[in-house]
Give the backbone structure.
Amino acid sequence: MNQLFPVIQGHVAKLVRVWLLVAACALLPLRAADLSDLFAERIKSCVTVEFLIENELDRQPVAVPGVCVDANGTIILPASAINARVSIRRLKDFKVYRPNSATAYRAEYLGQDALTGWHFVRAEEKLHPELVPLTAWARPGTPPVRLADEVWSIGLRGKDEDFHPYFLMSRVGLIEPMPQPTAIAASEIGGPGLPVFNRDGALVGLTLNSFGQNFLLFSRQERGQPVVLVNVEESSVFLLADEVLSYLGRIPENAAGRPLPWLGAFGLEPVDPEVARFLKLENQSALVVSEVLEGSPAEKAGLKGHDIIVALEDKPLPRLKPDQVVATYVEREVERRRPGDDLTLTVLRDNQRLDLKVTLGDEPKILREADRRYFERLGLTVREFLYGDGIAHRVKRAEQAGVIVDFVKANSPAAMGGLEPDDWVREIDGREIKTYAEAVAALAAIEADKDRSEFVLLTSRGGETAVRRVKLK
Amino acid sequence: MNESPAWSIIRAVVGALIVLPAVVSAPAAMSGDFNRLLGAVVRIDVREVTFEAGARRFVAGVGSGVILSPDGLVLTNAHVASPHAVEISITLPSLERVGARLLGWDHWTDLALIRLDLDEVKRRGLAFQHAAFGDSDALYVGETVYAVGTPYGLTRTVTRGIISNNRRYFEDSGGVRGYETGAFNTWLQTDAAINPGNSGGPLVTEDGRVVGINARGYVGADNLGFAIPANVARRIVDGLLAHGSITRSYIGLVPGTLQDLEHFYALALNTGMLINSVELGSPAARAGLHGGDILLAINGQKVDGRFPEQLPPIQNLIASLPVGSVVRLSLRRGGQAMEIPVVTEKLESRMGEEWAFDKWGLSVRKVSRAFARENQLDDDTGVIVLGVQSGFPAAVAGIAAGDIITKVNRQALADLETLKRIYQEFEAKPDSLLVEALRDRRVSLYVLKP
């Protein structure tokens, strides 16, 4: 008995091996070679975009994957590539790298599109022939991906590895409107912002930022502490191709992406299904308006805080999962329009249904457009007071004046004087500051005066003012 | 040997000096007055209600106190005996326990007045001493003082130290269980060991006079203890005895110290108090005062607030004015001098009344005017959620601690009674309720289901 077994085992193993070889010979030329060829072609649409954020004291390099979308070398980057607080004027030195190459090509920043959130960059002409736009892989008539379909994309390594591309593949696990048609694969399929293909190499989507995943952390200190991990290099989430292709033409006219449509309703909070049922809203969702902003199109149209938005253009708000997605749905409905366009909101107010026609406005200056100035000796950057600062500090427009502290250098006179970013400066040396220009002039004069031993600011933080003395000597 | 009279006197004096220390130290006993004081210091056990985790719970604490009168008045800290107390029991130095009740409290000075159950005292024939106040203004830095109390439950503990500072400024906006304290008085600082449980016990001089009520110490520091001066306590005791509470005036000034800024504001020496901020919606704000103004005089009385320890007396000057009276503030704004009349309001704490709604698994605190101002709310409508019990209707609906419930079934919660009434109706006839709440300025709706 003991001796017999190995003999039989050996036989079976040999048989299996032979069968596998036959099968592989039949499949390999058709399939595996196929995918690697497809891969080699499709990486021509992928690039890494590198740029610098010029801060007061340092230059912060950023590298993000991007995808070429047309024959003019236009490249799109995901919304998360650039922090919304960063001034456009501080974005410097855009460069584009192809996969597997250390050669840098110059590029310019075109701006951010409000609807998609994409940042658009254009590479220098020299590079154009080397790039293949993503549209080249779009096959009209390709059915949208379905559950369990095989999908693949590309990962890109870092600069030290010459942005080496690598292959990732998985299957579709879930398709859901969020509110755009979005698919989630069973595992990571590519770097965020890169194209996704099906088994035949047809474009099926564009990867989005990865979602957080729950894990338990075990270590010497922690015994099963729940943590959420987000993979920043690879993502399993992608936007479906039809949706992607329809927005490729939204190249911003300017860096800020203006004109920016504006409704002016703050804090749109979704109701959960229980609340919807209580409000007798079956199979639909609704949004509570927390505040209506002063002077906004929403205010002019008669929208009020605590109103409940139930329909847009007579279309009930869809029930989306999770509940929060319906707020994004309404925001997108605003952002896909232009200032001057009309939008009809149906709201519930005191058990009454009202139709309000809003004529969208042009959004007031946003953070990334604000003027800023750094005063080296004082250790302080101030920026102009924006509409959004009025909301944050809860002051009426008529009372808005002064400047906002944007940056405080550690251990500088300003820091020792107790100033913090987002403090609102209302007086300098006892003089009320009305405009940004006034503040800059006053601070520049203080900075230039080498005999100055101190200056005094009246600042406001959380509704409370404080007199702050900044000692220069 | 001839000895001059002068020499003999000197010898006698020197001899006495040598002998005297031996005479003083030999009996090693404290004065009779000090011993009588020990007979007036009590341990206080308090059982009180809390409304933290979405329910009504009871917790126990231990503190100290001092008996002030033959009719059983006991002075302690507000953070020992508060209106949350449901049961107060006092252990006399004779090791007898007797019940007591709260007569009144004042968290601003961290003082509370309780009275022994005199019927019980009489019935059981219990005896106790009572202590007398000393003059805390006469204390000098370096003077020996004793702290008597129940640190960590160790009854009748006496520790010794000196007055380290007799005008310490210490203000805490949430120092007495979330209630404000210290704005209207300075404190005695001592290095006599003060530990948890010493709270409410007396700080006494060698003659057994109460010069302070021990209240707090720095955690982790070596012997930095603080006591409320007896001269403040005396006033508060009188007020609590007469009215059960202390009424103060409020105008909404947040003072700052001038410290070296006199030059910038071109002020004469030793004058003025910097107004750092004016609370939104306060009488001072309505009267047009704002941050950066310099207060020179109150009703003609000059003020000097250059240093922190000078601020409480100025604050107290305003607080002592009758509520609703007009106070003339002399100010300097830029180069301009001006006089602005302000009508005072009644001072209120930021802490509102607390309550638990057991069936909802929800505990709340009323939004006070001060809380509304601090958090830039439109008004004082609503209740703050202190806690929710998981699995109970409030938690299931999605309500969380920190939310401010403003409306229930579209009815604005102007006061806690409104919510209590809605709860009673719910108890009688459980039905779904629509709750509107604020979280970080965002309005959300929830359904509370039975």
Residues 23 and 121 of chain B are 41 Å apart (CA to CA). The two ends of chain B are 109 Å apart (CA to CA).
